[in-house]
Amino acid sequence: MSNPNSLPKFSSRLAFILVTAGAAVGLGNVWSFTYVAGKNGGGGFVLIYLLALALVAAPVFMAELLLGRLGKASPPTSLRSLQKQSGSRLPWAPAVWLGVVSQIVILGYYSVIAGQAMHYIFVSLTGGFSAVSAEDVAALDSSFKAGPLLPLVWSGLFCAATALIVSADVRSGLERAGKLLMPALFIMLIGLVIYAALVGDFAAATNFMFGFSDITLTPRVVMEAVGQAFFTLSVGVGGIMMYGAYMGDNVRLPRAVLWIVAMDLLVAIVAGLAVFSFVFGFDVEPAAGPGLVFLTLPIAFGQLPAGSIVACIFFTLLVFAAITSAISMIAPAVQRMEESGIARYKSAWLVVSIAFFFSFLTAMSLTDWQHVFPLAALGFDGMTWFDLMREFTNNIVLPVGAFAFALMVGWGVGRDRVRAALPMEDTIFFALWFQVVRYLVPVAIAALFVYSLGL
Ligand code: PHE
Ligand code: NA
């Protein structure tokens, strides 16, 4: 069993904020935010996304950190002891096991997307992005996906890097990676957006993202906006709970959460402005889908002076952001095994090996198994293993976990204990947040499920 005093702690408040922001900021902010916003027409989607972020995802994000702070162990162990203390008969720990396991599945596809970005860093370093045409870029994408080998090699390297960082103890692994990579990411991002504004169409990008004039709010747009809000803050799967447990007792949660959510939002907005400046400046299709950053941006890079350097910076940024998120995906499982006496490096390598199995399924889905649809018999025709993994984790596991955590904090732990642990004065802000977690979040998520089943 875990001894709370032996749980490692981040060394400072700043360290906690940077590392947790590192877990939140990832491919979700750059790769998926831009393609989902592009696909769903920009402004209207962004508006719903902002509402979902502020009203549902961010309040649960704070609730999940709080559960970690109260439990001071791996998520399953934390929730088991909190359940006992609360006297509840509901199965709290199983609710998070789903998330702990699902994060390993998420790493499976995440590593392949990050792997393609790693491959493109390599291509940019060998001059592969100078003066490329649209056809060259398409050819580059298909050459990456010519067979499963290349995606597997790169995603394997990505998984190995993740295991190496998590193998180390929390301060020299997780913490050092976050402190180093997050500031680097911000600097690259600022450079990128300035450059994009100079050579691209910044006005069109702003207009696309914030122009609410022609909103087309279909149910699918709403669902994808809410799903993206959950995904971007990594809520509902226990990774954030783990970081809450590593957090020192001197961290004031409300303020820290504001900082982290603001950083995540800022990265998404700035990345969006950069990407769409290129998109509109170089006549690229905004609704290109998941391939947006790979299929279309290099066309813009190819036409820029020093395009290879810009491409190299952009894809490096993507990989940095991805790796600080990837470590949060395996941290809970590794911590749980450490509680059972298994050395960190052993469990880290074991967990990424399991993730790599899902990388294999993703790599196959993008290549030889493009037409293999595992659930075709159930009516999900056209859904590959990759699509299935993404739908299942994004649209089911994250909302279910968020729903469970909101109920635990809203109804299980007790108002006074919650308030003392944040800590927060008994103000209108606390009352508001607490009511949101008690009522609004569970009702909104339940409504979302009903809504999507009706689709
Ligand atoms: N929040 C991460 C991102 O934006 C993705 C993530 C989701 C990480 C779920 C861990 C768990 O890329
Ligand atoms: Na994010």
From TrEMBL:
Q: Where are the transmembrane segments?
A: 48-71, 92-112, 149-168, 180-205, 225-245, 257-280, 300-327, 348-366, 396-413, 428-451
Q: Does the keyword Nucleus apply?
A: no
Gene Ontology annotations for the cellular component aspect, listed alphabetically: membrane
Q: InterPro entries given for it?
A: Na/ntran_symport, SNS_sf, YocR/YhdH-like
Membrane topology qualifier: Multi-pass membrane protein
Any idea where this protein resides?
Membrane
Q: What domain of life does the UniProt record list for this protein's source?
A: Bacteria
Keyword terms: Membrane, Transmembrane, Transmembrane helix, Transport
- NCBIfam families noted in UniProt: Na_transp
Family annotation (PANTHER family):
TRANSPORTER (PTHR42948)
- Recorded protein name is Sodium-dependent transporter
